Amino acid sequence: MKLTDDDFLRLVTYMKQNYGINLAKKRVLIEGRLSNMVAEMGYSDFKSYIDFALNDRTGAETIKLVNKLTTNHTFFLREPAHFDFLKETVLPYLESTVRDRDLRIWCAASSTGQEPYTLAMTIDEYFGSRKAMWDCRILATDLDTDVLRTAKAGIYSSEQLSDVPDEWIRKYFRRIDNTRYQICESIRSQVIYKQFNLMNDITYKKPYDLISCRNVMIYFDQQTKDDLIERFYDCTKNGGYLFIGHAESVSKTSRYKHVKPAIYRKME
Predict the structure, then answer these.
(1) What is the pLDDT of residue 1?
(2) Which letter does DSSP use for residue 131 in this model?
(3) Half-sphere exposure for 167 (CA within 13 Å, toward CB)
(4) pLDDT in tens, 72-115
(5) SS3 of residue 182 by DSSP
(6) Is 34 in contact with 46 (CB distance < 8 Å)?
(7) Which residues contact 165 (CB under 8 A, 6 or more apart)?
(8) Cβ distance 206 to 235 under 8 Å?
(9) Residue 120 and residue 24: Cα distance in Å, rounded?
(10) DSSP line for 87-115
């Protein structure tokens, strides 16, 4: 099944205007992800399905379409230098400066959960027995409702744990069967998952000590990316940090100060 130029433009425009995602060069990807589903639903062309999805008053089919068109590649300890920096620099700084012992951490592109759980395990390892005195809960958001369900369950195959240290597997996972493991309850309870569209206004009770938004802005055009970075800056605490993906960059006009590759800081 092939997209007509009009159908392709409709989808590209819809995703860009509503979610900031630029699919202008992803025609083959769109066809590949939607063809089987559209055919199984009984449609003979994309136009009829797109009409149905974008006009579904319940919103259910629109969400299903968006879920299909978003990319969710992730794994545990991805770009490990970030987690080393978190443990060696960010957390010691926060422990010495956060007087109310309430850490404000937001993983803004959680996907299937590997990144926020890696953050939670790193924090647990750093604080050890001192953690009981701290609120270390992490807000983890994503646009895709399907991956959020997977993340909340915290169940992963043994292959998905290939980059996880054996010590962490023993400490933070419980074996379900020969091929699957689940994140232990003490770590799962530290991550709060919510659906969120990064194009929406960011509301918060207190500014964040750390925002991690890695490997999602590669799908945004420059203006969308710049606008999001500035909104992140406005809700970052003075002295707080921003982590982005190594394939991403922050504009030189940004108010953040570059610290290390893919690590930025709001200076006090």
Answers:
(1) 82
(2) G
(3) 3
(4) 778 999 999 999 999 999 999 999 999 999 999 999 999 999 99
(5) strand
(6) yes
(7) none
(8) no
(9) 36
(10) IIIIHHHHHHH-TT-B--EEES--TTTHH
